[in-house]
């Protein structure tokens, strides 16, 4: 469904389980960044009423997810650590086209966002199916469903607002690029690491 070409090795969960505090801290900050991304899309594209409405919903959902992760951190007697850089997302960001019209830039930003949601959804699925902690397995299953919805929303808006871009072709370029960088990840106890 997600179109990703390279699946996460389930053994990544063994790394995650070695440091639950780290994965939860990283996850919390990923949710904060996802909310900020949705707000940024609103700020730069306020003329698109339907987009604004949906991005506000996504921003709220992402903040709700941040709250859920924070509650889980507290429940487990852990501490929310400092914000971390997400090298995977930073690499994806560099792939965004910087030329073309404002609408072209919007479409590429939406594809960038869809890609992050797709990989997050895939990672949450791997966690939900392989982590030993039943509470975390259910937690990540529930979030996987939400991430899949965000992925389809971003992709749908990219298709809706495209002018001169073949969105399906550009999406395939995003998938190919993501495949070329994801091979370097899956070695750390972070959502994309």
Automatic annotation (TrEMBL):
<dbReference type="GO" id="GO:0045301">
    <property type="term" value="F:tRNA 2-(methylsulfanyl)-N(6)-isopentenyladenosine(37) hydroxylase activity"/>
</dbReference>
<protein>
    <submittedName>
        <fullName>tRNA-(Ms[2]io[6]A)-hydroxylase</fullName>
    </submittedName>
</protein>
<dbReference type="InterPro" id="IPR010386">
    <property type="entry name" value="tRNA-Hydrxlase_MiaE"/>
</dbReference>
<dbReference type="GO" id="GO:0006400">
    <property type="term" value="P:tRNA modification"/>
</dbReference>
<dbReference type="Pfam" id="PF06175">
    <property type="entry name" value="MiaE"/>
</dbReference>
<dbReference type="InterPro" id="IPR009078">
    <property type="entry name" value="Ferritin-like_SF"/>
</dbReference>
<dbReference type="InterPro" id="IPR012347">
    <property type="entry name" value="Ferritin-like"/>
</dbReference>
